[in-house]
From TrEMBL:
Record has Lyase as a keyword: yes
Designated name of the protein: dTDP-glucose 4,6-dehydratase
Enzyme Commission no: 4.2.1.46
Family statement: Belongs to the NAD(P)-dependent epimerase/dehydratase family. dTDP-glucose dehydratase subfamily.
Taxonomic source organism: Alistipes timonensis JC136
One Pfam family per UniProt: GDP_Man_Dehyd
NAD(P)-binding domain mapped to chain residues: 8-343
GO biological process: nucleotide-sugar metabolic process
Catalytic activity entry: dTDP-alpha-D-glucose = dTDP-4-dehydro-6-deoxy-alpha-D-glucose + H2O
Assigned keywords, A-Z: Lyase, NAD
Length: 373
C-alpha cells in the first residue's frame, strides 16, 4: 500500500507518545506511522493495544542513540516526517543518573537528526515536504517567582494576575536540573540543524501533562496508586511549588495542529493556563479518588507526608501559549476538573495496567526513592 506520508514517531510507547501515535494512526489512515521505541522502564506496548493491529501502524524496538539503526529506519520506511518524543523524562531520575539523560536526550537526539539529515540530503527532493518536529518541555526556561493564586486561570485572568510573569517563546533558557539541561541542549541541536543545514525543524515546549497511561513515578498516577494502597503521599518541601497542567490528549491535539500547520523553524509554547500548587493538586486527587472509591473513612489527607525538597526544585513554571492560539487556533479543550475526574477514573478502572508496571523494577525504584513503606 502506498502511503501519503511516512512518519517516524519516537518514544511512542511512552505516556505522551502513545497518545500521539493513537491520534495519528486513527485520524490519518493514509499515513504510515512507524513507532520507534527502546522500551525502557517507561515504555509499555500495553499503552497501544487498541491500535497495534491497524494496517498503517508499525512498531520497531529501537534505540535512538543507535545511528545505524535510525538511518536504516529512515531508508526502509522512506520517512518524510519525524515527531521526536523519545527521552528520559523524570527529573528525580536525572538527579541520580545524569549520564543516562545526556546520552538519550542529547546524543540520541543528535543521532536522529544526523540520520534524518543524511537520508533527506540523499534524496532528489532533499528537504521538500520534510519536517523534524522535536517535543520539549517548559522546564528549559528555568523558574518564575512564586506569587501564585489558587487554582485554574484562563488566559485573560492569568495575565491580569501575573502580568508578564510567564514563559514566552522568547524567554531565555535557564535550565536547573540535569533533565532540563539535557532537553535544553537537544532543543539547541534541533535549531542548529535548521540554521546550519536548512533542515525544516520545529520545537514545542509544553507544560506538565496528566492523563491515562502515565508511568506512576510522576505525581498524579503515583498518588492515585498510593491512595488506593493506603500508602503515604510524599510531597516535596511544603508542596508550595507551582506547575501548569495540561490534559495529555490536548497536548496530542496541539502536536497534530503544529505538525500540519506550524511554521518551519518556529517555536511554540503549549500550556493549559492552569496553575496549581502541588499541595492543592494533591488535595484534589485525594478528594476525587476517595469520592470515586466511596472511601468510608472520609478523605485520605492523613496520608500526606512532607519529604525533603528535591534538589534545585524550581518554584513556578507557567507557560504563555497565546501564540499557538493566535497563529494556529489551538487551545486546551478540557477543564481541569473534568480532566482530573477522567484521569482518576481511568487509573481506578485500569488497575491491571497499574499493577503490571508497579511490580518488579518499580518496587526497587520506589524503595530507593521513598523507603519501603
Ligand atoms: P515517558 O518517559 O513516558 O516516555 C518516554 C518514551 O521514550 C518511553 O516509551 C521510552 O521507552 C522511550 N525511550 C527512552 N529512551 C529511548 C531511546 N534511547 N530510544 C528510543 N526510545 C526511548 O515520557 P513522556 O512523559 O511521554 O514525555 C515524552 C516527551 O515529551 C519527552 O521528550 C519529554 O521531555 C516531553 N515532555 C513531557 C512532559 C510531561 O509532562 N510528561 C511535558 C513536556 C514535555
Amino acid at each position: 500500500m502506498d502511503f501519503k506520508r511516512n512518519l517516524l514517531i519516537t518514544g511512542g510507547a511512552g505516556f505522551i507518545g502513545s497518545h500521539v501515535v493513537r491520534l495519528f494512526v486513527k485520524k490519518y489512515p493514509d499515513y504510515r506511522i512507524v513507532n520507534a521505541d527502546k522500551l525502557t522502564y517507561a515504555g509499555n506496548l500495553a499503552n497501544l493495544r487498541d491500535v497495534e493491529q491497524a494496517p498503517n501502524y508499525v512498531f520497531v524496538r529501537a534505540d535512538i542513540c543507535d545511528y545505524d539503526c535510525m538511518s536504516a529506519l529512515m531508508r526502509e520506511y522512506e520517512v518524510d516526517g519525524v515527531i521526536h518524543l523519545a527521552a528520559e523524562s523524570h527529573v528525580d531520575r536525572s538527579i541520580k543518573d545524569p549520564f543516562t539523560f545526556a546520552k538519550t536526550n542529547v546524543l540520541g537526539t543528535l543521532s536522529l537528526l544526523e540520520a534524518a539529515r543524511a537520508y533527506w540530503e540523499s534524496r532528489e527532493e532533499r528537504y521538500d515536504g520534510k519536517l523534524f518536529y522535536h517535543i520539549s518541555t517548559d522546564e528549559v526556561y528555568g523558574a518564575l517567582s512564586l506569587t501564585c493564586p489558587e487554582g485554574r486561570r484562563d488566559a485573560v485572568s492569568a495575565h491580569e494576575v501575573y502580568g508578564d510573569e510567564f514563559f514566552t517563546e522568547d524567554t531565555k533558557y535557564d535550565p536547573h536540573s540535569p533533565y532540563s539541561a539535557s532537553k535544553a541542549s537537544s532543543d539547541h541541536f534541533v535549531r542548529a540543524y535548521h540554521d546550519t543545514y536548512g533542515m525544516p525543524t520545529l520545537v514545542t515546549n509544553c507544560s506538565n501533562n496528566y492523563g491515562p497511561y502515565q508511568f506512576p513515578e510522576k505525581l498524579i498516577p503515583l498518588f492515585i496508586n498510593n491512595i488506593r494502597h493506603r500508602k503515604p503521599l510524599p510531597v516535596y518541601g511544603r508542596g508550595e511549588n507551582v506547575r501548569d497542567w495540561l490534559y495529555v490528549e490536548d497536548h496530542a491535539r496541539a502536536i497534530d495542529t503544529i505538525f500540519h500547520k506550524g511554521k518551519v523553524s518556529e517555536t511554540y509554547n503549549i500550556g493549559g493556563f492552569n496553575e496549581w500548587k502541588n499541595i492543592d493538586i494533591v488535595r484534589v486527587i485525594i478528594r476525587t479518588v476517595d469520592r470515586l472509591l466511596g472511601n468510608p473513612e472520609g478523605f485520605s489527607d492523613e496520608l500526606i507526608t512532607y519529604v525533603t525538597d528535591r534538589k534545585g526544585h524550581d518554584l513556578r513554571y507557567a507557560i504563555d501559549s497565546r501564540k499557538l492560539k493566535r497563529e494556529l487556533g489551538w487551545e486546551p479543550s478540557l477543564q481541569f476538573e473534568e480532566g482530573i475526574e477522567r484521569t482518576v477514573r481511568w487509573y481506578l478502572d485500569n488497575q491491571a495496567w497499574l499493577d503490571n508496571i508497579t511490580s518488579g523494577e518499580y518496587e526497587n525504584y520506589y524503595a530507593n526513592m521513598y523507603g519501603s513503606r
